Amino acid sequence: MKLKNILITVDDIEEAKKFYHDLFGLDVLLDSDDNVILMEGLVLQERKMWGNFLQQEIIPENNACELYFEERDIEAFAQKLKELYPSIHYLNLLTTYSWGQKVLRFYDPSGNLIEVGTPNFS
């Protein structure tokens, strides 16, 4: 068995495609309107469509999971995030943990939690 994709729900597909391309360089592999597959196996689906499919309420900023990215030059990434998305909602600003890893946590425009950390824990 092989994990193929991770699906997150978004309020606005176009806004989400731009966000994930601008910050993480994830290009669109397949675009079928309410369902978009990006590089690295990230799938974006309109929240309304997903909620209708599940017949459940979809709750943004629920902190039940996060997307994790690694970035060597995290200070430059933090500056890029601040410049491109000045009103982004942070869970925590750039923090250095006791084991040496630097981490930044924030929500995408649809309330999905994202963590960006340095790859080396030294």
TrEMBL record:
Residues 2-119 form the VOC domain. It comes from the Bacteria. SUPFAM superfamilies: Glyoxalase/Bleomycin resistance protein/Dihydroxybiphenyl dioxygenase (SSF54593). InterPro entries: Glyas_Bleomycin-R_OHBP_Dase (IPR029068), Glyoxalase-like_dom (IPR025870), VOC_core (IPR037523). This is VOC family protein. It comes from Hominifimenecus microfluidus.
